[in-house]
User: Fold these one by one.
Assistant:
Number 1:
Amino acid sequence: MPSKISIRIDGELVHARLGQTILEVAAENNKPIPSLCSMKGLRPVGACRLCLVQVEGLGRMLPACTTPVQDGMSVTTDNAKLRGYRQMIIELLLAERNHVCAVCVANGHCELQTAAAKLGVMNTRYAYRYPNHKVDLSHSRFTLDHNRCILCSRCVRACAEVEGAHVWEIGGRGIGSLLVCELNRTWGESKHCTACGKCVQSCPTGALAEKGFAVEEMTKKPEPVSRIAAFREVRP
Amino acid sequence: MPNLSFQEQEFLDGLIAKHKGRPGMLLGLLEEIQESQPRKYLPMDVLDYISFRTGIPGAQIYSVATFYALFNLKPQGDHTVCICRGTACHTRGSRTLLERLQYELGLKQDEDSGSADKLSATTADGKFTLRTVACFGQCALAPVVEIDHSILGHVNEQALERQVKALRKGGHH
């Protein structure tokens, strides 16, 4: 099989390497697909479903982040149907927990907020669930606010794959899912946390933040985490 | 580091050795540990020890133990009453059964179960555990209640009350 292949993205013929995902190829060719759970250097999981694309000849949609490119593939990254689904996903994420931008440390630097703005989500047609989630302030340097978590598992993967501590995991199932620290300890009680902050920098929202930052002050820098991941070649 | 007796450690080491290297070893290991416990649950100290011994991150163990309804993190009662909350049973009045029994046993809704219709709670005296299940696949017998692994069909409040009363008197069977 040739390692260099060509595929069509929104009708445009582009070159790709075998083993790349649709999301990577699209980004390289200036056709960014919205995504929340994917992060360069971390294993893709397809958790947020925001990057769903249509592949010609297939009846169902595929997540661009976990779908490897194939020669001759024709991908549609944007149309009314896809935009409708993406808006719905954002609305469901916003309705699921207490995403109150006005009082959030990540306001203005939040990937969920940016995605919502880009997709033109102004309000949600679903009733807010207003869950009563806890805020973990036990760590000396960082904070965890479950109310702002979208369960993208970027922190889980950054910690497990890049730092190698595997402090985080998603516990429970369905609507009861929650980010857990080790055996349901508070972050401060964690035995393996190295306080490296990779999870915080990987977090797309204000769920994980550094202490000492006020509203709108927490900017995230996931790029260094991706760079370290590239050095270590975490992907098999 | 572990808060377990030498016998317990030795027992767990044996189980770990038995499961080591098998794909998906954690599930089988946890299942066997839970079965070996008199109260049919996974104590935190044991999970801590498993993580320490196998090198499987605690977060992963906790994630698996909370994902599957099979695993209990709290001590279970002598008798388990499982009320089906599937659609067929719901239309035949399983909510009333659940609420009635909850009242009877003095149990409150589990706050950290996440969803409002999911329940797993044990009475303070450790006699009964009441839990809900999504479906037993016995919809023709709706409403279905499972008591200590035997299925009862077409249950009404009186029948359920009788069963619970009998269990309370008779103890083990």
Number 2:
Amino acid sequence: MNNKEELLKSKEERALEKKRLKQEKYYMSSQWQLMGRKLLKHKLAIFSIVLLGILYFCMIFSDFIAPEDLENYSAKYSDSPITKIHTVHEGKFIGPFVYAQKFKFNDYGQKMYYEDTATPHRISLFVKGTPYKLLGFIKGDVHLYGVKNEDGTPSDVKVLILGADNLGRDMFSRILLGSKVSLTVPLLGTAISFVLAVIIGGVSGFYGGIIDTIIQRIIEVFMSFPTLPLWMALSAAIPTGISVTNVYILITIIMSLLSWPGLARTVRGRFLSLKKEDYVLAARLAGVSDFKIIVKHLVPGFMSYLIVNLTLGIPNMILGETSMSFLGLGMRAPATSWGVLLQECKSINNIANCPWKLIPLVFVAITVLAFNFLGDGLRDAADPYK
Amino acid sequence: MENENKKILDVKDLKIQIKMDEGLLTPVRGVNFSVYENETLGLVGESGCGKSLTCKAILGINGKKAHASGNIDFYKDGEVMNLLDLKPDGEKIRSIRGKQISMVFQEPMTSFSPLFTIGSQMTETIRLHITKDKKEAKEIAIDMMKKVGISNAEKRFTQYPHEFSGGMLQRALIATSLVCHPRLLIADEPTTALDVTIQAQILELMQQLQKDYGMGILYVTHDLGTVAKICDRVIVMYLGKIVEMASVRDLFHNPIHPYTRGLIGSVHKIGGKKERLFSIDGTVPLAMNLSDVCGFEDRCTSKCEACKGCEPELTEVSEGHFVACYRGAEFANGGQKNV
Amino acid sequence: MSEVILKVNNLCKYFDSKGVTIRAVNDISFEMEKGETVGIVGESGCGKTTLGRTIVGAYVPSSGSAEYRAADGEVYDLSNIDKKKMKELRKEIQMIFQDPYSSLDPRMTVFDIISEPLKANFKLKKEEIEEKVKFIAEKVGLKTEFLKRYPHAFSGGQRQRIGIARALVMYPRLIICDEAVSALDVSVQAQVVNLLKDLQKDMDLTYIFISHDLSVVEHISDRVGVMYLGRMVEYADTASIFEKPMHPYTEALLSAVPIPDPDMNNERIPLAGEIPNPANPPKGCPFHTRCRYCTEKCHTEVPEFREREKGHFVACHLTDTSMIKGIVKPKEGM
């Protein structure tokens, strides 16, 4: 009896000790740890992080995951719809396979695809195909899935899980490979405008006076331009003959040039309000130098806000790149991005007959939404002291 | 007092719970009190003792996260209704809010919308509860503004909140809350944001208006000075419970609960001896996962064995003087006090 | 008492905003001795915070001087001093802030907050800093294991202790407490007031205690200055100010303070109107618009701030001040 009581007591004590430790851990968590805790409670933001993680993971390994490269033209598959994946052939289960697509012309001269159910083509994993360089330096020719001939060589039967474009190329491959542009331009662009914003906004907010006034007027001028025409003008100035990489860099720069003013404003505003905090005055009175005050008190003070703003700014960049490429002013074929893919949707005919060509739009929308939700979650978490 | 005046409000075993990420917070843990006509009841306590939540529960404006249980009986023309049973956005509670019970907040600046004139915000209440007529409403409003000492009321009527000083705005807020002659006025730290000279004006104004209209006032504050000045009875709250309830004289001249004594001892009386201030050690614990012991046990200098048991009940030690302390009776009869 | 540690002469601080000059601190003079506490009282907008911040060097005064006798015995004019010397004097003059929330950087641990002044001013070894911080933390009643925590772990009273530790870590001589206890709960206020008094004895500190709370000021101060609209209207030792005030504003202010005793609430001397706009103060005596003893002279002439009785300075035209009432002393034994 006595023993039992003691045991109970020690159990209680242990629980209390555990709680105390948890509390202590909370007390010793820094701003970023607190932010992380709060963010973890934001379910939509976590879901978005996972989703974005998958998207970026697929982007990195796109050459491997995509069954083809960008130049796998095939007249046989031009405008082919989504390939159906079967498992049962003539009443027998033989695992996932596809039938080859055949087509005939109907009375109106339209291509009508039908399945040639004579021979099943089994889908296999790790199929040899067109060679690629993963991340630009890892050579390989194995693709995640595909159809191979009896002797192991790649077959010309395509598995088009998202249909094909008018040149018979696999949409899924193109979307994956296009994400290399569509998902990185915004990140790079944001990074550039981040640096610009911190420097320009910081100078403006810290020094104030005439410098502040001049910078603010410049920002206002920048912000008063209508964005789309300016993009168009700037990208029209990109010469046609230059390489894909250069186009990519130029577009990133154009995107970031137009987005820093808003961020710089945020930085300046935070700078001004933080400057008035008592702890900054306390540091000054303690004899801490201006530079140290900026680095130790001011910059960490607005970093979380800036990250929120950056995250919320990414969707704009994605949309911007997409619209520019859609208008033919951004990336140009043979390079591809989601905007380039959507170019085919310019005609109603295409949309009516081949609705799968709108699928890149779904990717754009999902990415934009995910970044927005993530930004929302970050915003709620940004001030963990409330 | 009970015989002379009619009861307006009866709060019975009010509990408020708030669900937080860290656990269940119980900022108000069973509070009982009544408010009568013509009296000012002070509700005193430090931040986090649950005094503001108690007031807001009466008006049903605590929001969805806070769950209130118990009874808040409101007496009206012989009828009794439990305010907690009413839907927080329903017709019935809205007809009581503003008309029967109104509230004055701490920050007059945030109580008015900066986009509308004071006049239009005042007449809004009048037109909702008294008369639909615009002209008549304006007359009533200007009349009330004059009563609370706003000079040049006609001109002030058309001005915006930012054109008012803090003290004037608080007067306007009081005018707005009294315009329907409520039977109960809840004042939540109405003078804390104001300067002493303005505070004195506002307190006197409230006393005067009470004489004129006979309403009951529930006066919430942490400032013992204002309590002594305007209250008839006082409730002292600690950690979501009433620890002492007495007439203002009894409370200040014969405080019994160790917390009350500590609180009074920690305030320097102007002109008094310059002794070292008494201070209560430690800090107020968070009202979460509390054990059964007396809430003040860990900070108390007069604790005994019984305190480690269950929490003491509020008991009457002398007429009208209630204390929640195991040694209450002992202290009331002149027992050894450590303060 | 002994030596004068601070002598403020005709100190002024004006702010210009949108073409309007606000005289936040207007022609203030007073002196204080080492080891004493001078309370500065007044209502919001009277310029008491600006006065404190000007003395501590956060603002550059518009005119006037603040002569400070440093530890080395030299007298320096804080309003006119080179940066290098000022940085040295910063170690001797420190400040405690009102808001325990905005005065601590939420991103730094308590140790970093308290050690910041040390790191900025001295080249010390890590162990030395640690030792000093621990010592001072214990002195203000903070457990040393709290040093690893961040400010969000603490309540208002404990945060104020951290702020006090930061101010004390360089062993200053003069501390400006700007509403240092106003944001705290009553019982915590008492803890901090007691702590400040203990530290004063312990570390030989001189305080300028700025507050709107007259009872706290009476409790802690040796001398009190009353400010109104940027000017000091009365300056004397605490007992004289509270018992025999000579300025009508002081009288009104004192009568307005509610006393925590239901039998003792004195008759309030009504104060007509409200504080005038500091951007547009009345001509003549700034208080004349609300003064019940106002005469013709008050409308036109600014009264001189002069010594009426020994150590009792007043700025008022009244020659006979016998009708001005102080506080009612509470009965003994209560």
